Amino acid sequence: MSEEMQWPTRAAKAAAKRAAREAAREAARALREEVRRAVPEPPWWSAPRRGGRQAPLTRDAIVDAAVRLLDRGEGLDSLSMRRLGEELGTGPGSLYWHVRNKEELLDLVFDRLIGEQLPLPAPKPARWQQQVKDIARRALDVLFERPYIAEISIGRFPVGPNALEWTEGVLAILRAGGVPDREAAWGVHLLTTYFTAFAFETQTGLKTPEGEARPEEILERIHAHFHALPRERFPNIADLADELTRGDMDERFEFGLDAILAGLAAAASAARAPRKRPRRG
Amino acid sequence: MSEEMQWPTRAAKAAAKRAAREAAREAARALREEVRRAVPEPPWWSAPRRGGRQAPLTRDAIVDAAVRLLDRGEGLDSLSMRRLGEELGTGPGSLYWHVRNKEELLDLVFDRLIGEQLPLPAPKPARWQQQVKDIARRALDVLFERPYIAEISIGRFPVGPNALEWTEGVLAILRAGGVPDREAAWGVHLLTTYFTAFAFETQTGLKTPEGEARPEEILERIHAHFHALPRERFPNIADLADELTRGDMDERFEFGLDAILAGLAAAASAARAPRKRPRRG
DNA sequence: ACCTGAACACCGTTCAAGT
DNA sequence: ACCTGAACACCGTTCAAGT
User: Fold this and answer.
1) pLDDT in 10s for each residue of chain A, 281 residues
2) Are B105 and B112 in contact (CB under 8 A)?
3) Which residue blocks in chain B are alpha helix, DSSP H?
């Protein structure tokens, strides 16, 4: 059994980026705090209302704060209506004037992040496959950078304005490449499902009774378990223990992505070719 | 815009099956209750301890009750440690002697269902692709029948005994078909990820602020929204509104499944063919 | 060894009352 | 119109105490 662990690459980069962002935010906060201490406000100014909310409570401010909370914490659980209220200097009840419920808040957070993080190139028909690959890789980067997005995204039909813009763009690229309507529509969903589920399973994922372990550690333990399995009963798992629990995530992602693209490309060339099957109707 | 709604088929079948199961269980419960009423136990027997737990509290009994609870309710939220305690005639605390925490309980429930619901055929190398398709379709059926399974499965590396048996079987089929090791290992994950995510997105899925609507209704509303979009800005979404929100789920599932299989088949035939690329190492 | 009861530290949501 | 405070109906988990 070869012993190198080639897991992280992308994950490591994402973690570094996350750490950097957190550090920057921390620095800014410290600075603000120091200024406040050094240069006091005139005492006849009215003090900011309880808890230190400066800005008025608006839907945007709420979404801002929610993203802040999520970026700071780990996982979707870091965001609760109560903590969000606290972050904004109120109680949880106040939020319900601006937002119907938590589900709607998550819709808003999701759409905000799509808008900020997922710009789209204009369609270049000649290289549509490459463009789709780039889009998918970019999406995966974002999903690794903020693991909670996958948790929000999964099982949510993205219909916010930014999501629509993105969907529109991907559809444009696929159709420009000659993918027929039905397959283009299905393809967009297939793609989003794929990179979301992939990110979820490799990053956020790996729900486990042991709580806090990082995904790599969990996989390492599973790997050991696979090796300890009785070989007569589990010859294939024993043989493939390495491949099942390790492997470069980028290559692995590419494997599925290529399959999807091949499927779309096949549909495109079938549509171009003279039809052999009679049409119904 | 053609107006037939061809959505349900599989979903409808699954719902019917679910209803039938529930009815059967209800009948059994009623019968038991009637017998109990008609033929009283001798009064010198000690009464069953509080709440009516008959069987001793064991890990198996707990998993049984959890599945019962999930089958009866809607979605994963129907299962809470408190309700589970109630179902078994105790408090939630008692469960923690047998089960480390809720996450472990879900591991157990998941493995139980895999064992009960997912039998595997012996590999027949000649028709491995057909076998894989059958396996995937069977899995999708199960996932539609009990929507909560997808919620449990997603992000969980299946390592229970039954899951291992299943994985072992699928690996055997893929390798018998000539799929090389790496692609076989990745392929199993790709497949499970695919049908889990697919089921999650189409059944359980569609998290939405409006709470209780059935998936079909939600999709219908989204469809209307897409049609109402400004056509100059969203020409593609407007064109494809039908294909984006409707369509036969089986065909759609097949589309992705075929892509995955084509990818695996390509890897298999590449392995058989004389190698053109030099090997590293 | 196994179970109980009560407590702890949380949730999302509602709603009368305030401004 | 917007926000507050308190309450409601829940969570998962822990742990001393009991048998």
Assistant:
1) 343 344 446 666 666 665 665 565 556 555 555 555 554 555 555 554 444 555 689 999 999 999 999 999 988 999 999 999 999 999 999 999 999 999 999 999 999 999 999 988 888 999 999 999 999 999 999 999 999 999 999 989 999 999 999 999 999 999 999 999 999 999 999 999 999 999 998 875 567 777 667 778 888 899 999 999 999 999 999 999 999 998 889 999 999 999 999 999 999 998 887 655 555 53
2) no
3) 10-38, 59-72, 81-87, 102-117, 128-145, 148-153, 161-176, 181-199, 215-228, 235-239, 241-245, 249-272
Q: Using DSSP, state whether A170 is helix, strand or coil.
A: helix
Radius of gyration of chain B (CA): 24
**Phi, psi for B161 (deg, rounded to 5):** -55, -45
Measured from the CB, is B80 under 7 Å from any atom of strand D? yes
Under a CB-based contact definition with an 8 Å cutoff, are residues B236 and B186 in contact?
no
Please give the backbone phi and psi of residue A40, each rounded to the nearest 5 degrees, phi first: -70, 150
pTM (global) more than 0.85: no
Question: What letter represents residue A263's amino acid?
Answer: G
Query: B86: which residues sit within 8 A by CB, 6+ positions away?
Result: B51
CA distance to A209, A237, A244, B170, per residue, from B158 (Å): 13, 13, 11, 13
**B232: contact with A, CB 8 A cutoff:** no
Does the distance separating the beta carbons of B107 and A190 come in below 8 Å?
Answer: no
Euclidean distance between CA atoms A119 and A112, whole angstroms: 12
As ranges, strand D nucleotides with an atom below 7 A of a protein CB are 2-7, 10-16
B119 three-class SS: coil
**Does an H or E element contain A263, and which?**
helix A249-272
**Could you tell me how far CA B204 lies from the centroid of its own chain?**
9
Q: What's the CA gap between B192 and B264, in Å, rounded? A: 14
Q: What is the CATH number of domain B40-100?
A: 1.10.10.60
Q: Is B156 on the interface with A (CB under 8 A)?
A: yes
Sign of dihedral through CA atoms B129, B132, B138, B140?
negative
Q: How many CB atoms lie within 10 A of CB A252?
A: 19
d(CA A74, CA A212): 11
Pick the residue from chain A with its C-alpha nearest to B207.
Answer: A156
First to last CA, chain A: 58
Of A141, A153, A260, nearest to B155 by C-alpha is: A153
Contacts of A216 in chain B (CB under 8 A): none
* Strand D atom within 7 Å of A50 CB: yes
**Which nucleotide's C1' is closest to B96 (Cα)?**
D13
Contact A53, A84 (CB under 8 A): no
A57: CB within 7 A of chain D nucleic strand: yes
Task: In whole angstroms, give the CA distance from residue B199 to residue B249.
Answer: 10
CATH of domain B125-274: 1.10.357.10
- Tell me the C-alpha distance between A185 and B256, whole Å: 12
- Cβ atoms of B152 and B109 within 8 Å: the answer is yes
